[in-house]
Amino acid sequence: MVLTRKGFTLVELLIAAAMISVLFVGLGAHLRGGITLWLRSTQTVEGLQRQRVALDRLERDLANAVVYGGALPVLESDGKRMVWATIEPAGREQPARLRIVAYECAERGGVQGLWRGSQTASEALAQAEASPVLLLPQCEALTFRYAYQPAAPSEPLVWEGSWGQTDHLPKLIEITLMRSGRTVSRTVEIPSGVLEPLEPPAP
Amino acid sequence: MSRQGSLLIMTLWVLAILSVFAIAIARYLSLETHLTRYRVAREQAKSLARAGVYLAAMQLTKDAQDPGEQYDWVGDDWAATPPDVTLPEGRIHVLSVTDEQRRLDLNSARSDQLELITGSAEIAQAVRDYVDPEDPTEQRQASPPYAPKDAPVVAMEELRDIPVMTPEAFAALQRATTVGAGTTLNINTVTPEALAAIAPILHDQPSEAIIQILAAARQDPATMDSCIVKDLADMADQLAACTMQDPEAFVELRTKANFSVRSSVFRIVSEGLVDSPKVTYRVEAVVQRSQDGTEPPKILSWRES
Prior knowledge:
By secondary structure, chain A is α+β, with helices and mostly antiparallel strands.
């Protein structure tokens, strides 16, 4: 039988294995960085998406806000919490309703975040617990600024930290959220916020 | 020979693994692009719907500026919804413009009128209790908590919180009554439901037949014009001629409510439509225009969905 060199020797195999493992370790180090980056970016995008959905909800509640009057506030905020009356549009199963909504940055059940409570006017007046829903995790502070038009229409809008009017809404509301040390803000237009008081024009 | 074969298999393996990666990334990215595209379309639809309200409000102001026409009726210029506006992004579609003076003011409606509208004395009383100042006979409830507001209603949706309210009664109230538009009724636009509630009996006769004849005459293009009251002083004679009824009935009708021939508060329903991806956004607004159209309209209420 003639010996032909068709197979590998043990040394050749070992050298090949060593070379391949060095190659894989090098590749792995690079890939790990890439995978971490990918995971982090996915998480950030999802976080932003959630934040956008929460702010959209807030914006819709503000756009449909009504001046309820009586014992309930028009717009009440104390730096951490904001309460107002709004019309919740009709959903698939329930018709449009007037709700008193409260947004607040608080810790409930061990979760620090932005919570939204919604209840009927009667429940709010009876000071019943609203059983809030978590909209967004991580929220340290929630602040608002309100814009109104001064008497002369030519003057620019004036921004204030509180809203004392009880008969109408501001024109714009700026919402600022403090999340993990970073601020996020959005300015919402209130279409039914009037520039002048709601009185019929003089004949 | 065999070594070259193993190389081919290895290459195929690597190719397969890489393709799986590529497909996964492509799917993820296409989902993100879809979401973003939907979001952009939604914002566009919202802006288009809002623009529709402003468009209709502008038409209302223009109508008020016409000095030759000091009355409002169902076939008025403002009632013809503006034609759709097509933009590269989508379409503005104004669904309807109606005046609010066609309905009774809910806050000042009497309980007998509310009973005629809802068909239930209990609901009528509950609505009155809700609006009227506190009194000891009012219905209160501990669970779920309910206490009447004892103040004027600011949004019709509030009435849904009254425990005895039914969807049918609420729909009937929405057809015949409204809030925030004042207590005058425009005789040219008033709905048959509102008329039936304020005047169930006219001139010792049930008014139902007269109201039906009036409603039919207003629908018919041939008689429509003769039924428009241009001056309140001619109301009785004109409506009598239009319906061929005894003028006395309309003289009596005039005493039943605070009538007018003009409207100042209007409800505008507008939609913004974007075709791809398909998104519809709806805005319903109530606006008040100044009588001579010199001031810009004021938005009294706004609903977005």
